[in-house]
């Protein structure tokens, strides 16, 4: 019996899930018995390959194959950086003060703080790709790819600002006080304002549906699968206690995820606010130890990055190859332009949309510019002098070998960091998927509980099976939604520019209250804080004196 795709969003989603779990796939031999993995892959594979070939369609550019979606996102990053007059530089100081709580109105609408929103969004982007993906970029594009990765990360900060500003501006406050926001809401709003309400609803529904399905793959099964693989690496591979107990690891991870996500965004934000600094410190300290031990090669590593970034030697990938690989890695790393981060930022406690756009500048800065650069320096300073770069190791295996070259037990903290990255990414994407789900099916409590239980079951499933086709399908869907999202960002660009410039001007004029300094009486503050308050809040201070 064949399952035919239905029309309604709910039936489409249920059809996909049920057919994934139960469809009797075709075998190469009529009587050949297929296991669960093979059945699912056999059914999904043709669809996944077709969709992936469209989404990641490549064109030849200076002799290199480049996915059009990478060009689409990269051009948007360049455009918004220039259009907003390099706000990714001008706004960093204000962004830092916002995260610190300087301008957080305790009476403003929202569920989480600026810092919690950043932590949640970073946890969704900082993952195993930051450790292994950078090594892949260096292997393919040479050391020069690192320079262009940094540049791409810097430029994508502007894209992130635009989508997160819109996420707050067009968010929906539900009757219970919870917040729903993201591309599906601002895309619908724009088309509705242009008298295309049905088209807006359809486009928002498409984004939400793709987000739900995508989150079950790239933000769920892939993470638990990779986390399980890392656990096996440090516990003895085939000799590990967990070697034939993927189900046990999956159940444990699913339970841990459930304990966090059942509490909603407040619970997720509290966990990520603690988890992100811990895993970042763990990885950064480990990487710095390795850099210290390879300090003699560090100057040469930096020299290689800059010389190869502009080199014309085809043997090392050349400048063009380095640019392409660097930008591609950055796009896949920080997800700027996909719109997922705006969902987390829409829940922040603020009445100023531009404030959250400015705060979001820190995500690509930390994710791509800082952590990816650190990973690159670790790999280049050791892999090139030792010849590891010319071996067969790639990705996280190469990074792990670099760590092990200096300290035999160094792969253990690396594996722990990878496990934490996978866990934090999973809980962040659970929230993104939930908001896509509620956009489609409403905010009813039982509906949200159903999604969370389904999400946790897929976490357990991911560590037990290898669904390459499903992951390929969900990966393609996640990047497909960047097309309508970036188009919407272009349309909203003038509005965002006005919002941001107006907000920055009001801060400069002292019209935005510095609530952190006003928490106590100004007279009780140290002299330097009183002076700083008078400088940064001139208008308010003058009115208080009169």
TrEMBL record:
Annotated protein name in UniProt: Amino-acid carrier protein AlsT
Signal peptide positions on this chain: 1-27
Organism in which the protein naturally occurs: Vibrio aquimaris
InterPro entries: Na/Ala_symport
UniProt GO cellular component terms: plasma membrane
Pfam families for the chain: Na_Ala_symp
Residue intervals passing through the bilayer: 61-84, 202-222, 247-268, 275-295, 301-327, 368-389, 409-432, 453-471, 477-496
PANTHER family: AGSS FAMILY TRANSPORTER, SODIUM-ALANINE, TRANSCRIPTIONAL REGULATOR, LRP FAMILY
Keywords from the UniProt entry: Cell inner membrane, Cell membrane, Membrane, Signal, Symport, Transmembrane, Transmembrane helix, Transport
Family: Belongs to the alanine or glycine:cation symporter (AGCS) (TC 2.A.25) family.
UniProt subcellular location: Cell inner membrane; Cell membrane
Primary location recorded for the protein, binned into one broad class: membrane
Molecular function terms from GO: amino acid:sodium symporter activity
Membrane topology label: Multi-pass membrane protein
């Amino acid at each position: 019996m064949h399952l035919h795709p239905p029309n309604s969003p709910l039936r489409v989603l249920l059809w996909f899930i049920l057919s994934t779990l139960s469809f009797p796939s075709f075998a190469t031999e009529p009587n050949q018995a297929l296991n669960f993995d093979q059945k699912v892959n056999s059914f999904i594979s043709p669809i996944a390959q077709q969709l992936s070939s469209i989404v990641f369609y490549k064109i030849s550019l200076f002799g290199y194959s480049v996915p059009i979606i990478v060009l689409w996102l990269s051009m948007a990053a360049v455009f918004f950086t220039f259009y907003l007059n390099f706000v990714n530089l001008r706004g960093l100081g204000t962004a830092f003060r916002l995260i610190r709580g300087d301008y957080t109105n305790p009476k403003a609408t929202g569920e989480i703080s600026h810092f919690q929103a950043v932590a949640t969004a970073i946890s969704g982007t900082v993952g195993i790709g930051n450790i292994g993906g950078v090594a892949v970029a260096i292997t393919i594009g040479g050391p020069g790819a690192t320079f262009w990765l940094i540049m791409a990360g810097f430029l994508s900060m502007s894209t992130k600002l635009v989508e997160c500003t819109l996420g707050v501006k067009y968010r929906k406050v539900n009757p219970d006080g919870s917040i729903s926001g993201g591309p599906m809401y601002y895309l619908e709003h724009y088309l509705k304002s242009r008298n295309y309400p049905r088209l807006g609803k359809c486009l928002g529904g498409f984004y939400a549906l793709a987000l739900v399905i995508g989150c079950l793959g790239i933000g769920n099964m892939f993470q638990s699968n990779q986390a399980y693989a890392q656990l096996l690496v440090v516990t003895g591979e085939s000799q590990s206690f967990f070697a034939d107990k993927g189900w046990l690891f999956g159940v444990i991870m699913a339970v841990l995820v459930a304990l966090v996500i059942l509490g909603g965004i407040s619970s997720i934000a509290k966990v990520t606010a603690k988890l992100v600094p811990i895993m970042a410190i763990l990885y950064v300290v480990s990487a710095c130890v390795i850099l210290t031990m390879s300090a003699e090669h560090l100057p040469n590593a930096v020299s290689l990055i800059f010389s190869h970034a502009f080199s014309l030697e085809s043997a090392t990938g050349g400048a063009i190859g380095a640019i392409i690989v660097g930008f591609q890695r950055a796009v896949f790393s920080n997800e700027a332009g996909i719109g997922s981060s705006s969902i987390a930022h829409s829940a922040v406690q603020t009445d100023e949309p531009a404030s959250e756009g400015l705060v979001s500048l820190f995500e690509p800065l930390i994710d791509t510019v800082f952590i990816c650069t650190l990973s690159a320096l670790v790999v280049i300073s050791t892999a090139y002098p030792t010849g590891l770069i010319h071996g067969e190791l790639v990705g996280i295996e190469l990074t792990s070998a670099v760590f092990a070259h200096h300290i035999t037990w160094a792969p253990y903290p690396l594996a722990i960091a990878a496990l934490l990255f996978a866990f934090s990414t999973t809980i962040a994407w659970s929230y993104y998927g939930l908001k896509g789900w509620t956009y489609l099916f409403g905010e009813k409590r039982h509906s949200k509980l159903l999604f969370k239980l389904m999400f946790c079951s897929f976490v357990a499933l991911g560590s037990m099976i290898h669904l390459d086709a499903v992951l390929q399908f969900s990966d393609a869907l996640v990047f497909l939604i960047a097309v309508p999202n970036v188009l919407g960002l272009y349309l909203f660009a003038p509005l965002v520019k006005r919002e941001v410039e107006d907000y920055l001007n009001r801060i400069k004029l002292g019209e935005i209250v510095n609530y952190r300094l006003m928490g106590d009486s100004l007279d009780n503050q140290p002299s330097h804080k009183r002076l700083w308050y008078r400088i940064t809040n001139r208008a308010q201070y003058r009115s208080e004196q009169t």
